[in-house]
Design brief:
There is one protein chain. This protein is 86% helix and 0% strand. It is rod-shaped and about 110 Å long.
Length: 154
């Protein structure tokens, strides 16, 4: 039985170790990318929530200003609008603003979901393509060195 020289054995072990290190590094980098993407998604969601809260606070501040303005105004005659009519107009305006803010928020969330699903599809396609390239490369190396692998047919 033929035993390869010690140098060939050491190079084989070194190659295996190098392969394990490369796989470990690849896995770590992939985990870092996933963590970074998750962090970016969370930052985006927090920005949307902050924007919604800011818009809500602006509406509340406008409401407070209107109340202060109504408190300081002079009494009006019967011919002008009543306080209840002014209140209804003000409430209708506030409701329409809130509806606009909510529709904008829904559009942003829908766009974000679309981008996330598109990115997932692209990642899956990229992984499949890389797998095909690795498989083709391994098959080419195998065919080039059949005696090394002691194979008769492919």
């Amino acid at each position: 039985m033929f035993e390869p020289p010690i140098l060939d054995q050491l190079m084989g072990v070194g190659g295996l170790l190098l392969g394990f290190v490369a796989v470990y590094r690849h896995i770590k980098m992939q985990e870092q990318r996933e963590e970074e993407e998750r962090r970016e998604e969370q930052e985006f969601a927090s920005m949307i929530i902050q924007g919604y809260n800011h818009a809500y606070e602006r509406g509340r501040e406008a409401e407070r200003q209107q109340i202060r303005k109504n408190i300081r105004r002079e009494f009006k005659s019967d011919e002008e609008k009543s306080d209840f009519e002014i209140y209804l107009e003000d409430e209708n305006r506030k409701i329409s603003l809130i509806k606009e803010y909510l529709t904008d928020y829904e559009k942003l969330a829908k766009d974000y979901r679309g981008v996330v699903s598109e990115n997932k599809l692209l990642k899956v396609e990229k992984m499949a393509l890389e797998g095909m390239h690795i498989y083709e490369d391994m098959r080419m190396k195998y065919r080039a060195n059949r005696r090394k692998w002691r194979a008769r047919y492919v």
